[in-house]
Design goal:
Elements (H helix, E strand, L loop, with lengths): L11 E6 L10 H8 L3 E4 L5 H4 L7 E4 L2 E2 L2 E2 L3 H13 L3 E6 L9 H10 L3 E5 L4 H9 L11 E6 L11 H4 L4 E6 L5 H10 L7 E6 L7 E6 L3 H7 L4 E5 L6 H4 L3
Parallel strand pairs: 1-6, 1-7, 2-3, 2-6, 8-9
Antiparallel strand pairs: 4-5, 9-12, 10-11, 10-12
Helix pairs in contact: 3-4
Length: 250
């Protein structure tokens, strides 16, 4: 493999996306980088099979978070990365899905950049791509959707309001991350802004994992579906979700 580390004391961090759940969805590059890490700083949604790829003597640091409950505050995670890199260790920062999609990867890299620590980014398959693929739901389809948007259901740090009117278009697929608890609000906002209450929807729980479950129903039943679903789950809104019936394979 190629490595960017030139000497033992060269600070270096690889920011690696582990994919959505099925360990086989890790990239070949991610696989190699994890195998050569001295320390792996990882989140809750990373599969144990992927963690097991690390060297037996690699230090494993868990900094997992849940929505509404941050085990380790973000500042402290940033600090751990800086400290470990400055020790001259080869650090892998391992996150679920892709680090740049609702993963705070950008924030962590900004801290590293401020400390002059070099880094690389190894992309991962984000939940929206992985879970819909395993559910047989194409995110776009010429007969159904010409665009797709990824939205966080979690209330944001800056408090910025979502542009609901631009989301509520019938030829658009919407994928909400962290949306289960907000499903009532999402449903109300979309209907208020003109989306038909019968628009087909799906919830994909534990996408790409053996336990994967797919719930389907019209938009006006979304809160009821969400009440039966467990985290991690994605809410998918749009007529592409009907294709699950024809294309489900997993
Ligand atoms: N960076 C990650 C997303 C982190 S936010 C990525 O790119 O996928 C966490 C949210 O991702 C969860 O609340 C859920 O909405 C979604 N998610 C992650 N893994 C998932 C899975 N296996 N199935 C369904 N949703 C998942």
């Amino acid at each position: 493999m190629t490595t960017h580390q030139t000497s033992l004391n060269a600070s270096f961090v690889s920011l690696v996306g582990a994919g959505p759940g099925d360990p086989d969805l890790l990239t070949v590059k991610g696989y190699r980088v994890i195998q050569s890490a001295d320390v792996v700083v990882f989140d809750r949604l990373v599969s144990k099979e992927i963690l097991a790829l690390a060297k037996p003597d690699a230090e494993m640091i868990y900094v997992g978070k849940k929505v509404d409950y941050h085990c380790v505050p973000q500042d402290q995670i940033n600090q751990i990365l800086v400290e470990q890199a400055q020790l001259g260790r080869k650090v892998v920062r391992l996150k679920g899905g892709d680090s740049f999609i609702f993963g705070r990867g950008g924030e962590e890299l900004e801290t590293l950049a401020e400390h002059g620590i070099r880094f690389e980014v190894v992309p991962g398959i984000t939940a929206a791509a992985g879970a819909t693929a395993y559910a047989g739901i194409p995110l776009t389809h010429r007969d159904h959707a010409q665009s797709v948007q990824f939205i966080t259901g979690h209330v944001q740090k800056g408090g910025g309001e979502i542009e609901w009117a631009s989301l509520a278009q019938s030829n658009n697929t919407l994928v909400f991350y962290m949306g289960l608890k907000q499903s009532g609000r999402i449903t109300d906002k979309l209907i208020t802004h003109g989306l038909d209450e019968n628009t087909p929807c799906a919830i994909i729980e534990n996408g790409t994992r053996k336990e994967q479950r797919v719930f389907q129903g019209p938009l006006n039943t979304l809160p009821a579906m969400a009440a039966d679903a467990e985290s991690p789950a994605l809410i998918v809104v749009g007529s592409v979700t009907q294709l699950h019936n024809k294309l489900k394979w997993f």
